[in-house]
Specification:
Blueprint (H helix, E strand, L loop, with lengths): L3 H10 L1 H28 L8 H24 L13 H7 L6 H5 L6 H29 L6 H64 L3 H20 L29
C-alpha cells in the first residue's frame, strides 16, 4: 500500500515527474503574480490603500514561480509545457470564478464589487494552497533540497490566507456581507470541482510518466473522487468561513527575496 508521503517521494525521485510537478506549480504561481499585479494597477480610487498589499501578494506569487523554476534548474531540468487539463488557474476562469483576464487586460478601473470578488476568490484558492503546502511542509520541511523552499512558500500562503480573511471582514463591516458570502459559496463549489478535475488530470499524467500499474492509478483516482464527495457534502464550508487572523496586516511591507537554489 502507498501513502501520501510515498507518493510525493516517488514524484520527487523521478526527474520527469518532478519536472512536470514543478512546471505546473511554477506556471500557476506566475499566472497568479500577473493577475495580482494587474488588480493592483486597476484598484479603484476608494481602495488605493489596498494596492500595496495586492502588489505584495503578486510579488510573492512571482517569487514562488521563480523558486519552482530554480528547483528544476538545480537538477539540470528545463520546464515543460503545462497540459491544458492541469491548468488550475485557467480552468477556474472558464468557470467564471474570479476576475476575467479580459477585464484585467483593459485599463478600466475596477469597482469595489470587483475587489470583493477578487478577495473572495483568493480566500478560497489560498485555503487550498495553504493546506497543500502544510502537507508538503509536514513531509518535506526538513528535506535537504526542498525544505527551505517548502517552508518559505508555506509561510507565504498562510499570510495570503490571513490577508484575505482580514480584508473580507473589513468589507463585510462596510456592508458587503451578503455579496461576500454569496461569492465565497459560488467560488468554493466551483473550486472543489476544478480541483477534482485537475487532480485527476495530474495523477493521469504522472501515472504515464511513472508507469503506474492500472490498479494503483484506479485507487488514486478513487481517492480523489472520495475527497470531492466529502468536500461537496460538507468540506466546502471551511472555505467560506471568515475569522480575524492572529497575524494582522500579514501582507504589510515588501515581499521577501527569493532564496538561491541553483
Amino acid at each position: 500500500m502507498f501513502s501520501a508521503r510515498s507518493l510525493f517521494q516517488e514524484i520527487l525521485d523521478n526527474d520527469d515527474s518532478f519536472r512536470l510537478f514543478c512546471s505546473i506549480a511554477a506556471s500557476g504561481e506566475s499566472q497568479g503574480g500577473w493577475e495580482n499585479a494587474r488588480i493592483a494597477a486597476l484598484v479603484p480610487a476608494s481602495e488605493r490603500d489596498l494596492a500595496p498589499r495586492i502588489t505584495r501578494h503578486g510579488a510573492d506569487e512571482d517569487k514562488h514561480g521563480r523558486i519552482f523554476n530554480a528547483l528544476m534548474k538545480k537538477r539540470g531540468l528545463k520546464p515543460v509545457d503545462v497540459p491544458a487539463d492541469t491548468d488550475y488557474t485557467m480552468l477556474l476562469e472558464r468557470q467564471g470564478i474570479g476576475l476575467a483576464h479580459e477585464k484585467l487586460k483593459s485599463d478600466e478601473p475596477l469597482t469595489v464589487r470587483d475587489i470583493v470578488t477578487y478577495l473572495a476568490h483568493s480566500r478560497v484558492t489560498e485555503q487550498r494552497a495553504s493546506e497543500e503546502m502544510e502537507l508538503l511542509r509536514k513531509y518535506f520541511g526538513d528535506h535537504p533540497d526542498l525544505g527551505r523552499a517548502v517552508r518559505m512558500i508555506s509561510k507565504d500562503e498562510d499570510n495570503h490566507l490571513a490577508y484575505c480573511h482580514e480584508e473580507l471582514l473589513r468589507f463585510a463591516a462596510a456592508g458587503h456581507g451578503r455579496l461576500i458570502q454569496r461569492t465565497l459559496r459560488e467560488c468554493a463549489l466551483a473550486e472543489i470541482r476544478v480541483y477534482r478535475d485537475v487532480s485527476l488530470a495530474v495523477m493521469s499524467h504522472m501515472g504515464r510518466v511513472l508507469d503506474w500499474p492500472r490498479p494503483k492509478a484506479a485507487v488514486l483516482a478513487a481517492g480523489i473522487r472520495a475527497v470531492y464527495a466529502y468536500e461537496r457534502a460538507v468540506g466546502w464550508r471551511r472555505m467560506v468561513s471568515l475569522r480575524m487572523p492572529e497575524r494582522r496586516d500579514a501582507l504589510g511591507g515588501p515581499a521577501t527575496r527569493s532564496p538561491e537554489f541553483a
